[in-house]
Inverse folding.
């Protein structure tokens, strides 16, 4: 009886404290709003809730980041001094801090992860990024770039791989919550775009404030269609679930079409072609013969091809066929010509600074003097607007030199090599999981093809899904290696 009374007393006492503190907080918050017009104190419970999740449910933090990434809003759109994407970047920074604290005593314990080629490529990447920041022409800009890439990559890949390895269900949840949020953005954009009769000019900004422009919006959409298509065809989902997934995929396909992002279209088309080759197991030698035939044809008919390209006067428009035709217009299409201008600037910058580049994140501030007057277009600028080098690889070349670009190439090669080896092994063991990995790989194909023409990995909108996809692939690779070791030990 006394024990029961003690418990009731303690519970009652705890409840009284909670009520008292809540009342004090409400009064303080009300006073701050009325007398100081300060609303930040109202965020204190949210902050305390997030701190709790960081220490006791990091999986939930991952899913919050995933869900909010398509919905995040960058404050730089309103104030150039506040280049922060809310809420994702602060959440990623918190996750980076937790990772650094945890890695002090357990990071070296996971040797298989450290031996993975993708992990090795990332370690080389950060070492070279730091070195090229030391030699940068604009050190402050470069170190900011270095810090931002730490919180974009480390939480998603280094921490994410561990989480996806330990909690396998999180892999699909990570994809699904982003897919749901992206579908909401696509519906919002399509409805808004319909009000302008799906015009080409309006397609560049109707997705705001969620995405900066149609190119990054299109690339994000293209990434999720393959993996969700394979998930929709799995037996584990019932009819209702499959219906909603397929309906959402239709929405995303329409959104991709009306994004008028030619680079996203091309990436998606190439990914679809690779998917057909892999699924139907077309022999490798057939692919090689086809590629060699195309290369030889291009070599022997290069003069005719260049004449044909120079005669193409079709600019981008809201007509889908005309927009596709404009991809090869290198004579009048301002977008294509400006991209070539940016590429040439990157090459000239690399020629002046071949070893370490001009410094991470500096291209947009330093490329202007490298422009030639006869290459400039009606949309050229000296202010560093309208994107950077328009290429993940040439951007790396200009900013971090030849070693930086080679590391980037090695990283991308490692991703696809490990990914397709993992898919091949899983196809024998677990076809459902193999198709899931193939969907992720095809999604990455859409982006890295796009990466030849644009560079968005410095944005949380693309970095979160790209490095998250890679982390899932590596987690499955490590699970296979772990299973192999266990089977060998059992024998």
């Amino acid at each position: 009886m006394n024990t029961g009374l003690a418990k009731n007393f303690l519970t009652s006492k705890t409840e009284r404290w909670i009520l008292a503190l809540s009342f004090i907080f409400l009064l303080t918050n009300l006073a701050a709003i009325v007398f100081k017009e300060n609303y930040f104190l109202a965020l204190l419970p949210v902050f305390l809730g997030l701190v709790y999740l960081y220490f006791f449910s990091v999986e939930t933090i991952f899913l919050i980041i995933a869900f909010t990434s398509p919905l995040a809003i960058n404050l730089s759109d309103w104030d150039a001094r506040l280049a922060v994407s809310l809420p994702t970047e602060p959440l990623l920074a918190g996750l980076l801090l937790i990772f650094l604290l945890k890695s002090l005593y357990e990071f070296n314990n996971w040797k298989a992860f450290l031996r993975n080629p993708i992990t090795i490529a990332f370690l080389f990447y950060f070492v070279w990024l730091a070195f090229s920041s030391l030699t940068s022409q604009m050190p402050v800009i470069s170190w900011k770039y270095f810090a931002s890439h730490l919180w974009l990559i480390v939480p998603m890949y280094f921490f994410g791989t561990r989480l996806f390895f330990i909690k396998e269900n999180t892999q699909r949840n990570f994809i699904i919550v982003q897919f749901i949020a992206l579908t909401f953005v696509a519906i919002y954009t399509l409805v808004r775009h319909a009000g302008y009769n799906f015009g080409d000019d309006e397609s560049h900004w109707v997705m705001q404030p969620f995405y900066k422009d149609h190119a990054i919006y299109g690339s994000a959409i293209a990434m999720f269609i393959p993996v969700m298509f394979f998930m929709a065809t799995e037996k584990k989902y019932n009819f209702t679930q499959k219906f909603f997934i397929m309906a959402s995929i239709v929405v995303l396909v329409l959104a991709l079409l009306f994004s008028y992002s030619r680079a996203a279209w091309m990436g998606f088309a190439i990914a679809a072609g690779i998917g057909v080759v892999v699924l139907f197991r077309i022999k490798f030698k057939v692919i090689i013969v086809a590629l060699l035939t195309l290369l030889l044809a291009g070599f022997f008919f290069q003069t005719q091809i260049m004449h044909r390209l120079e005669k193409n006067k079709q600019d981008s428009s809201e007509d889908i066929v005309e927009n596709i035709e404009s991809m090869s217009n290198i004579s009048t299409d301002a977008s294509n010509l400006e991209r070539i201008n940016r590429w040439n600037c990157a090459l000239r910058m690399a020629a002046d600074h071949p070893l370490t580049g001009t410094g991470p994140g500096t291209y947009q501030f330093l490329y202007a003097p490298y422009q030639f007057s006869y290459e400039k277009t009606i949309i050229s600028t000296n202010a560093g607007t309208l994107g950077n080098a328009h290429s993940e690889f040439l951007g790396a070349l200009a900013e971090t030199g030849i070693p930086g670009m080679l590391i980037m190439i090695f990283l991308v090669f490692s991703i696809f090599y490990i990914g397709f080896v993992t898919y091949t092994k899983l196809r024998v063991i677990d076809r459902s999981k193999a198709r899931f990995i193939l969907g992720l790989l095809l999604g990455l194909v859409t982006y890295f093809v796009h990466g030849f023409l644009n560079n968005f990995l410095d944005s949380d909108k693309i970095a979160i899904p790209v490095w998250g996809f890679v982390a899932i692939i590596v987690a499955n690779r490590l699970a296979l290696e772990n299973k192999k070791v266990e089977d060998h030990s059992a024998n």
In short: The mean pLDDT is 83. The beta strands are 73-74, 85-86. Residues 12-53 form one domain. The CA atoms of residues 112 and 375 lie 49 Å apart.
